[in-house]
Specification:
The chain is mostly helical. 65% of the residues lie in helices and 1% in strands. Among the domains are: 1-33 and 43-94 and 114-144; 262-399; 410-420 and 432-608, Leucine-rich Repeat Variant (Alpha Horseshoe), CATH 1.25.10. The strands form two sheets. It has a two-stranded antiparallel sheet with strand order 1-2. Strands 3-4 form a two-stranded antiparallel ribbon. A hairpin with a 7-residue loop joins β3 (420-421) and β4. The longest helix is centred in the first third of the chain and has 24 residues, at 8-31. 46% of the residues are buried. This is Tubulin-specific chaperone D.
């Protein structure tokens, strides 16, 4: 759960000005017609295209602002004013025209309805989107408030009941609720039409719609008579209309003139009756009724309008909830609405009755409410728990101090329920029996109470204990999913609220002696303890929002209470909100940085790393980072103590203690602990300082005990079978690699090393070049004791691990194999290498057995120590083994494994670099691998790895065979349709470009680190699917290095254009829509630059037609791209042999069953007829005539389309021939009629 490297909110801030400017420009053009010059009036549109409306809403305009909605605030007034005026103008236009708005929907033509929509619908969509982003309470304030708009909007909303979309109904109801703020009595602004005798029947029909609403309808204003049935109807809607209808009814019922007419009383009584309907209703009915009651109660908080109904409403709603009425309580939204109603009643009652002890009814009502809300804290749905916790905090704020403290005690008692004493660690709590949902509700309630400062200061000790416990709370289901994230998030909120609401003096007075919160220095204040817990959570928590929440709470804690936390300001700067976004960075960089500030933070993080947030994490990549972090923190803490090796020994013993206590099924924890022990060994060279004192008793004790521990762990891994053996194998392989400095120190302390060398960590040893490894091997003396046992055990295990099919195990197993070879004696080393070479060389006879990447990688890595062997032919043996297996085994995965091994070992062993002439044909063959199976283009994996191998060869400026053999293939792959392959080829191609075309200032050397300049390079900065990228490919030779461009391959444009276009056409024809648009746009712009360029392009495409006649992968896209260029009229007739082109197309279509190829050929024939000349034009006509009698109707229809295009173009005076194509279905016509048509059109030819 990592945040992206560049957060979406940061990206949005950068582009927000452009998005807003674009919306400002497009909105008026979208709403109003373009007027002639000099005409300043604006005429609103009737209809707009649905695509244009969606474009204003989609990702490139409004939708991105959901991340930072406040960025729209300065512009909402202008936009909504423009939208509302256009909306009303559209209503007025419909009122003055001869048809209503409902006629804008063309029900007889659904295709047209999908393309064109009424302007009111489009505006409603935009306004709803703004409400979704910014909230309807903010947006509704900017809607027009002209009283004269009330009845037109009401009429529009009434029409929406049948034909309009839900967005229009929602906006209409919401706007009406805003207009009901009018300070005039509705009777004075209502039309008299509804009091006429002619409309009596219509009124009666509307009155009967609302069952149970007892009103004197004849005394009500016309607007009220129309609004009530309309809003009540949508109150039971399952969509957003329900929210707008609720707001409209609340606004109407609370108007003073409506209360005088009895509307409020009737609506409340109707709502209470609606909770007990005679017939079964949908859950949305109850949600609407309850939300109306909650809205009325909340809106009348400062008045006494609802006081007479409080008891009645409470008993009705609470009774429905307590009786578990299925339709009411089945929905989470209904339960949330019940909580809002009961909360509002209790708040109003507390406002009215100050002394509850004198009012038995009021006291019972409040106590019942609190009990009900406490029960709701364990609800299965998060919105219900949120509502209940907030309600409890609001009610507690209005209680006296004694009753408020009782509420806090009830919450704390709930947090202690089912909490057991730790069996393994007596000082800690066992939370395995608690309900995580109830804990979330209780923790959230506690946080809300702290935010409103309800708990007294003397209860803070228990509260802090609960918050810190919640900060590390976790529960996992049997499937591995987490259910503790909500609890930890609520705990962060609670600590943040506590830091804001309580003074430093109050918090420092909180006793900490009785707290069970892990290891802390004696006398630490509650602020220091809380800060340490937040640091651990910010560095280790798997959830990104918890890490950031902990960072924010830490900043609030230290900022509000300065000089109370060790290195406070520096801790805030280190545990930064953005620094902890990436978990790997938080685990390693941030944790190490805060440990350097004070050891107390490092100790807390180390303790947490051995728990579920560290070695017990479900993600394997996170456990690898945990191992590295555990070792780095241990080394840093060791350097601060008088006896560093003792600190290392403590960490190893602590991890081994946890390891021995694990059950066999706890494989993930075992994997994490092995990685952690390996991390400690990696820090050993840093602690001893490279050149160690090998006579030191402390050093001798540590290395001997560590060597024995490694052997013990390896024997345990061999003796037992685990659920996921690949994880244990990876951890053990990593331990073998990291044990290298321990073994080197063992040999040095025992005096068997010939010439002691500087101790380096295992990963650093693996990364060293062949010369340094050879020097180390020769410096080592006789292999005895633990070293010999280590080699024996490792060889046994590697025999199984190198056969793995797990990609994550191949690299550590190969590195472990190299470590084993380093500590083997000469004879054993040569025997092992020959054994691996034999396995790699020979293809398995059984189809069920396959040699995967383990042996390939191990053999490639062994090349770095081949110089230490007495037999000089070992290097040739290694190379020959790879080549022979490549040539004899066509299996795609084998080729991928070979290329991966060569690429990875190149920087270490130099296998690929030293044997370029041997492996260059393999790489070239891999770049041309287009193997396709039932799984798809599996050859793309080989091409991808071959590109990486090419990059490894091009680390130095290439020339000669390295250019001539590979660059044209890389150029083709840089333009092909697969994004993954094209992106990798783009990076490879940048290695042979001139610095001024690759780098911005300052120009770096060609062999500079590519990752460090990735975002400063213009060629790399252009995305691999952009028009600019493909344009640069078409003009590439001028940008190449001189050593590359001087090759004969680039002396003739056809030499490099043909390979480039063979890949380019796949992107321009069969890629995704955006890719096709970008490639064709770049190609068209390039051709328009010069007729000579166009001729070169067309010539290369025709040459590819001749070369790839039997390769439909290239042939069909080439036909389509040629057709596209002819259709764009950019091809000049001069210089092209049109007849040869037609003959090549004829050959491509001969006896083919590929319909798409036939359609491409037909389209190309049509283009030749229109753009070609001479014999080529006549040949194209003849071929169209021949295909007209094709047995497949689809092909004949395609020919007719091209003929109509030719004859309707108006060229050569053949317009009358086009009329003969009309009125007949040529796909279903008999052959005689078709032949007659061909003769009449003169398409038979000679």
């Amino acid at each position: 759960m990592d945040a992206p490297v560049e957060d979406s909110d940061i990206k949005l801030q950068k582009v927000s000005a452009d998005l807003i400017s674009e919306f400002d420009t497009r909105l008026p053009l979208f709403l109003f017609r373009r007027q002639r010059s000099g005409d300043s009036s604006q005429k609103v549109r009737k209809q707009v295209t649905a695509r244009e409306a969606d474009g204003l809403i989609a990702e490139k305009c409004l939708d991105p602002f959901q991340e930072l909605p406040q960025l729209l605030d300065p512009h909402l007034s202008r936009w909504i004013s423009l939208l509302s005026s256009a909306f009303v103008s559209s209503l007025n236009l419909a009122a003055t025209s001869s048809h209503s708005l409902s006629n804008d929907y063309d029900t007889a033509n659904p295709e047209k309805e999908a393309l064109l929509i009424p302007l009111t619908q489009a505006i409603s969509k935009i306004i709803y989107t703004l409400c979704k982003i910014r909230g309807e309470k903010v947006v509704v304030r900017f809607l027009g408030n002209e009283v004269s708009w009330l009845e037109p909007l009401l009429s529009f909303t009434e029409q929406c009941q049948k034909t309009k979309t839900w967005e229009e109904r929602y906006v209409g109801l919401l706007w009406l609720s805003h207009l009901l703020f009018a300070p005039f009595d509705l009777a004075t602004i209502s039309s008299n039409n509804y009091e006429d005798a002619d409309d009596e029947d219509e009124d009666e029909e509307k009155k009967t719609v609302v069952e149970g609403l007892d009103l004197q309808w004849e005394k009500l204003p016309g607007i009220t008579v129309r609004v009530l049935p309309l809003a009540i109807r949508y109150l039971a809607s399952p969509g957003k209309e329900r929210d707008a209808a609720k707001a409209l009814l609340v606004r109407l019922a609370l108007r003073r003139d409506m209360q005088e007419l009895g509307v409020l009383d009737a609506m409340v009584r109707w709502a209470l009756k609606a909770l007990r309907p005679k017939q079964e209703k949908t859950p949305y009915h109850y949600i609407g009724v309850l939300s109306f009651l909650a809205g009325v109660l909340t809106s009348s908080a400062d008045t006494s309008d609802m006081d007479p109904y409080l008891v009645m409403v409470f008993h009705a709603v609470h009774g429905a909830a307590e009786n578990s009425q299925e339709s009411v309580m089945a929905s989470a939204l209904a339960r949330k609405a019940v909580i809002k109603v009961i909360r509002a009643v209790a708040v109003l009652f507390l406002r009215e009755n100050k002394d509850l002890y004198e009012d038995i009814v009021g006291l019972g009502l409040v106590e019942t409410t609190i009990g009900f809300l406490l029960d709701c804290l364990g609800d299965n749905d998060t919105p219900v728990r949120f509502a209940a916790s907030k309600a409890l905090s609001i009610i507690a704020l209005r209680l006296d101090q004694y009753m408020a403290s009782q509420v806090v005690e009830a919450v704390l008692e709930g947090l202690n329920k089912n909490v057991l004493k730790g069996r393994e660690t007596p000082g800690k709590k066992d939370l395995s029996a608690v309900n995580p949902l109830e804990w979330h509700g209780l923790m959230l309630t506690l946080s809300h109470l702290l935010y409103r400062r309800s708990p007294p200061a003397d209860q803070l000790a228990e509260i802090v204990q609960a918050l810190i416990t919640g900060l590390s709370f976790e529960r996992r289901a049997l499937s591995g999913s987490s259910s503790g994230t909500n609890v930890r998030d609520a705990a962060c909120f609670g600590i943040w609220a506590m830091a804001r609401r309580y003074t430093t003096k109050e918090l420092l007075a909180v006793p900490t002696e009785s707290m069970i919160i892990g290891a802390h220095a004696p006398g630490s204040s509650v602020l220091q303890i809380t800060a340490t817990g937040l640091v651990a959570a910010a560095c280790l928590d798997p959830a990104g929002n918890i890490r950031r929440g902990s960072s924010a709470a830490l900043q609030e804690l230290i900022g509000r209470h300065p000089d109370t936390v060790t290195e406070g300001i520096w801790v805030v700067q280190t545990v930064d909100y953005h620094a902890v976004a990436l978990r790997a960075r938080a685990l390693q960089e941030v944790a190490l940085g805060v440990t350097k500030l004070s050891p107390r933070y490092g100790e807390a993080i180390l303790e947490a790393l051995l728990g579920w947030r560290g070695v017990g994490d479900v993600d394997a990549a996170s456990r690898r980072a945990v191992g590295a972090s555990f070792g780095a923190l241990t080394a840093e803490l060791a350097l601060t103590t008088p006896d560093p090796l003792k600190r290392l020994r403590q960490s190893v013993s602590l991890a081994k203690g946890v390891l021995t206590s694990l059950q066999a099924r706890q494989v993930e924890e075992r994997h994490g602990l092995l990685m952690s022990i390996a991390g400690v060994f990696d820090g050993f060279p840093k602690v001893v300082g490279g050149q160690a004192d090998y006579k030191s008793e402390s050093l001798i004790s540590f290395v001997n005990s560590s060597a024995d521990g490694v052997l013990e762990i390896l024997e345990d891994c061999n003796a037992k079978t685990y659920r996921r053996p690949e994880l244990v194998a990876e951890g053990a392989s990593r331990l073998i690699i990291s044990a290298a400095p321990i073994l080197q120190a063992v040999m040095s302390t025992s005096g068997v090393q010939n010439s002691p060398t500087a101790i380096v960590s295992g990963p650093e040893l693996i990364e060293e070049n062949a010369g340094e490894i050879t020097q180390l091997v020769r410096a080592l003396g006789e292999r005895e004791g633990p070293v010999k046992g280590f080699v024996k055990l490792t060889r046994t295990y590697l025999a199984k691990w190198l056969l793995t099919q797990e990609p994550d195990l191949i690299t550590p197993a190969a590195d472990a194999a190299l470590t084993m070879l380093i500590f083997s004696d000469d004879g054993e080393r040569e025997e092992i290498v020959r054994e691996w070479a034999g396995i790699v060389r020979h293809r398995p006879t059984s189809s069920r057995v396959a040699t995967w990447g383990g042996h390939f990688s191990a053999l490639a890595m062994s090349y770095s120590i081949a110089s230490t062997l007495q037999t000089v032919q070992i290097k040739n043996l290694i190379c020959d083994s790879f080549v022979e297996r490549w040539n004899t085994d066509p299996y795609t995965d084998v080729h991928v494994a070979v290329l991966q091994s060569l690429t990875r070992s190149n920087s270490k062993s130099g296998l690929l670099r030293d044997n370029t002439d041997i492996f260059l044909p393999l790489i070239a063959e891999g770049l041309d691998d287009y193997t396709t199976t039932a799984q798809g283009d599996v050859g793309s994996m080989v091409r991808f790895q071959a590109i990486r191998a090419t990059k490894a060869l091009w680390t130095e400026p290439p020339s000669g065979p390295l250019v001539e053999g590979l660059i044209l293939r890389i150029l083709r792959l840089a333009a092909e349709k697969l994004d993954r392959v094209r992106a990798e080829a783009q990076v490879a191609l940048s290695l042979v470009l001139k610095p001024e075309h690759v780098f911005r200032r300052p120009p770096l050397s060609h062999h500079a680190n590519l990752s460090s300049i990735r975002f400063r390079a213009p060629f790399l900065q252009t995305t691999f699917s952009s028009t600019a990228y493909f344009t640069s490919l078409l003009s590439l030779p001028s940008k190449l290095l001189d050593s590359v461009s001087s090759s004969t391959l680039f002396s003739n444009p056809q030499e490099w254009l043909c390979p480039l276009l063979s890949g380019y056409v796949s992107s321009a024809d069969t890629g995704n829509e955006e890719l096709v648009i970008a490639t064709r746009s770049a190609l068209l712009s390039h051709c328009l630059a010069s007729p000579d360029i166009t001729l070169d392009i067309v010539t290369a495409l025709i040459s590819n037609l001749r070369t790839h006649q039997k390769n439909d992968r290239v042939l069909v896209p080439t036909l389509e791209v040629l057709r596209f260029l002819l259709d764009m009229s950019v091809v000049s007739p001069e210089g092209i042999n049109w007849k040869t082109l037609c003959l090549l197309v004829q050959k491509a279509a001969y006896k083919t069953g590929n319909v798409r190829k036939l359609e491409a050929c037909i389209g190309l024939y049509g283009g030749v007829v229109l753009q070609g000349e001479g014999e080529g034009r006549e040949e194209a006509k003849k071929r169209l005539g021949a295909l007209m009698v094709h047995p497949w109707p689809r092909v004949r229809s395609a020919v007719v389309d091209q003929l109509w295009r030719v004859y309707s173009s108006g060229s050569n005076g053949e317009e009358e021939k086009g009329g003969k194509l009309l009125g007949t279905d040529w796909g279903a016509t008999n052959k005689g009629s078709i032949q007659q048509l061909v003769n009449e059109l003169g398409l038979t030819g000679a």
